[in-house]
Model the fold of this input.
Amino acid sequence: MRIGGAGYFHLPALARFNDIYVPHANRIALNNEVGASVMKTRCEWAKGNELYLAYHDTEWGVPVHDDRQLFEFLILEGAQAGLSWATILNKRSGYRLAYGNFDPQKIARYGDTKIEQLCGDPAIVRNKLKILASVENAKAFLEVQAEFGSFDAYIWRFVDGKSKQNAWRSASKIPASTRESESMSRDLKKRGFKFVGSTICYAFMQAVGMVNDHLVKCYRYDELKRK
Done:
């Protein structure tokens, strides 16, 4: 999901609460907390939309070190190219089913028959280039794991192993890419990854907590800064 700068995205129409990808058990808790949380100060992009609110409050900017989750975000951020992040969140459960819960070993073995099947699956983004890229990315992902021991050990090197704490007061000040995302993009491309431009890489960094880009007025900013 692109926030700010050239990566600014437009909010879609209000999504139905049942479309949120949050697991059922968590929906009940979220429902109970809606009244109590309505007065919390959040990043502007999360307001007025339950889909974004759940993502903002529970995932965006939380440091991720699990390889499967990192792979999931890498694939989803690439799939978003040219689309809204709401589209991807609405299709997230479909992706998990179609992609074997984002198991890179399974995806790396997808052949022509499986790829054609995915191209006809309405539960995901039916873009053949993006689907082919996900297979190539799975192969490259496994190679990185073999070289570094884990994808986590490799990818977090671009921020020296710790989340970068920014202090933005306006979403318009948040960059679409940075020196770190450009470096990451170059290296990923060199290793055979696709759909990993600098803007996509920065969105990935925001999502997995490599940078804390919540606005300083947002209640999540201080919560994540303490992690």
